[in-house]
Amino acid sequence: MCGIIGYVGSENSVPIIVDGLKKLEYRGYDSAGIAVYGDEGFGVIKKKGRLTELEAVLNKNPFTSHMGIGHTRWATHGEPSDINSHPHLGSRNKIAIVHNGIIENYKELKERLERKGVTFASQTDSEVIAQLAELYYNGDIIDTVIKVSAHLEGSYALGIMCLDDPDNLIAVKKDNPLIVGISEHGNFIASDVPAILSHTNKVYYLSDNEITVLRKGGVEFFNSDKEPISKTLETINWSLDSAEKGGYQHFMLKEIMEQPKVLRDTLSSALLSGENKNIIDSIDISKFNKIAITACGSAYNAGVVSKYVFERLCRFSSIEVELASEFRYKDAVIDENTLVILISQSGETADTIAALRESKARGSVTLAIVNVVGSTIAKEADYTIFTAAGPEIAVATTKAFSTQLALLYVLAVKFGCKLGKIPPDMESSLIAELNTIPEKISAIFEHVDYIQKYASACISYKNIFFIGRNIDYAIALEGSLKLKEISYTHSEAYAGGELKHGPISLVEENTLVVTLSSCGRLFSKIFSNAEQVISRGAKVLFVGNACEVETSDKVSLIKLPGIHELFSPSLSVVVLQLFSYYVAANKGLDIDKPRNLAKSVTVE
Length: 604
What we know:
With 604 residues, the protein is an alpha/beta fold. Helix 18 links the parallel strand 22 (511-516) and strand 23 (539-544). It has 19 helices and 24 strands. The strands form four sheets. The chain has an eight-stranded antiparallel beta sheet with strand order 3-2-4-1-10-9-11-14, covered by helices on one side.
């Protein structure tokens, strides 16, 4: 969601902060702003719209300062506007803050402050923090932050400057990510690593209710009792190049093309050597009688795919896939005999964190699949295995999704063998098949021109539907989501057998139905569904390796390399990603930063 960066050091903070905000654009935003410390008070510039709007004003009103904070806002309370943008100041202009999260009791706090004569400038919940801080400020900014934090209900990551404390930048967090970066010329706070990667790869991960004080020469950490605490400095192994476009027009296309490499790295970490393998081997799956998988968005779709794989290979009587946003509200039937698998690219997804904590409270064992070391989910889960996707900048996930699938496949194969549901020779065969996925994706890339050309003819469709049966239906969900989130084309995914139970009423001329078919035993069924929509005026694009069809003006085909049916989604999804990308590209859309969306959803 919102992005935060702050800097204190020997260099001019303004260009550092603006560059950091650019690196955080993928989180989604509708406005941006910056506040810097100056001899005559805080210099504040904030603008609705893209960062170019902010840069234009900064170019006309240049600032130079050794310390500053910046913010990209994704509106929750108050419409997108200049005044609702961050940073926010207290009414005495002594304290400036940037905030990611939601303050749930802000109305109560605001009414209390208004009764004391405080006048609010914005409609946001965040301004309450700045006003409350000025009310409590007694000359010691750390004491003030502790007192303010005690009164805030909800989630927050805060960057704070005080006019009376010109050398110190303060930060605190609860249920929202915040890191501290250390460099030779100064120190940083940021919502995510890419914001500071051009300056340093040395970071601390803040835990909830920890306070940090940054100055040019170092950092200190305190708990909520103002007691000093020590933390471990981590080294980020992402290269700066991995967070840059590398000659591609969009990050999304770059990240699609990176999938063979990151899949090799992820599979190697789980099958050959490394911590992932050690953790997977250490899990005694026989202790459990149920697997519950929970996630949001594309990660949820990965869970739906994996349900078919776990059922086939592990033969558990109960395997459930739940949206994390519903998990803690449904009174889930889980206990100490349940393994809860949580999937999140960022490891900071608010609903998935809530599902994790609910699972642990009920005694379940938790296993997380995440991409970010040091993230909240990674630290709190009983077991954590990491995808080797590297930084994923585009809002629409591609390589992170594929690496999540790969780890889920490995878990299913390994668990199935441990449970005695598949023999060792079948385990070896399946693992050998898994290791062919990167090469087969590379083979798909040899036909990108055809996918691009086909997609260019699809920009006029008002409705595009995705259908499949069995595991093909599961990956159709992801194809539909990918298309709608970056191309703004209305799209839905349906199980092929459900067409005649309602959805077929939507099929008419100028409709495209993408038909997934990699389940050979079900080809005749899905082919019949395709014929039904063709007879009603639709055109059909078959995608799969079990598609024996004749092409025509109504029927097109993208044939995939042969692979075990259970792993076919890893090939199908690459075609669907490319198709969605090129539909959006031909519409001239902002593919990496689609409207209204955020990369990491850190609030409910």
